[in-house]
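This follows on from our talk about sequence and fold. Please put the record directly below this note.
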Amino acid sequence: MKVRLNPRKASAVIAVLALLGILSLYVLANARTLVRLKHDVKQIEQRQLQRLRGNETTDPAQLTLTTNPVQSVPDPLPSPASAVK
């Protein structure tokens, strides 16, 4: 007894298998990205803890923040008032 497979059903099975393969690749890539992000967050947390260990105080008023000083930047375009004479 021979079993004949309808060509439409066969192509539908192939299409579903292809979609499942693509979805599994997507899931694996996202899982790998999540593992990397978790690792990065741990590293950032460790750096912050090391940085904050120097400041043993928990009072926010006593914490000192250092920032870059603001420097004035010369205007690259002349003003219209100085151009008209």
